[in-house]
Amino acid sequence: MQVFGLVGSPVEHSLSPPLHEAAYRELGIDARYVTFEPDPTDLAAAIEGARALGIRGLNVTIPFKRDVLDCCEPDELAARIGAVNTLDFGGERLTGHNTDAIGVKRAFAHHDVSLSGRAVVVGAGGAGRAAAFALADEGTTVAIANRTAERARELAAEIDGATGHGLAELDELLADADVLVNATSVGMDEDVSPVAPAALHGDLAVLDAVYSPIETRLLREAAATGATTIDGGWMLLYQGVAAFERWTGRTAPVERMNEALRERLASDDGGSD
Ligand code: NAP
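YS: structure for the whole thing
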């Protein structure tokens, strides 16, 4: 039996076990997906131990996505983003990858949104970094707006052609934007939006990284303007799909994984992945 898993804290409400185990069942793969919550001071030892035990792949979540860079060889994208959410133990060297960025790209692709023109990313934390690099790599001109404007400017300085702003500039940035990503935690467990409804318009494609609740106030208000809306479940799904495909070399049963995720999201209080 192969073992995959997730390291983070907290992980007890993670949606990754049902997401991945649905794929193992569908394809008849003899595998389990297990969650681990190591003490932060033991992260390196935990990763070494996982390798020694023959664990094939690990996802990594809060608060370890940056610290784990020191325990692996990040690929080029993960190194630029400065965060790893997927460890691959399959080769000679332990490699680190950022499938959150792939999740952003594939969530838009799934909804036939072509990534060109202007994108606004609200947030400059882990999800904001992954989204900003992903969108820039696809060819959009990225503006990052963050509560702490300095953090947005620092991130923008790392990305060709990107600009960094405070939230006060958000309405102006959105006026001629094609794509909007909410990569803040605003809207999580609370019916609030990081964007004034009047700034939304029908030419936008809006991805909310928040998936608990699955239908956020931002997405409701964006849908009311005729915008294309993409909930955080799609990003979560495709980061998992990308990790699964890397680890197993198999094409993921995306529909089955999505069904499992949606079932859990409908019955659950969500979690951190
Ligand atoms: P993070 O690194 O802690 O960053 C949090 C971001 O939210 C920062 O930009 C922070 O701004 C901003 N923020 C927090 N409270 C705010 C408020 N009250 N008003 C305005 N901005 C506020 O967290 P993260 O890992 O990027 O996660 C952000 C969200 O994305 C979470 O809801 C998480 O669940 C979600 N996420 C989803 C996926 C997915 O697959 N769907 C993947 C990763 C993350 P400051 O810099 O000013 O503090």
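YS: worth flagging: DSSP finds ten helices and twelve strands in the chain.
IM: good catch. Also The CA atoms of residues 3 and 230 lie 31 Å apart.
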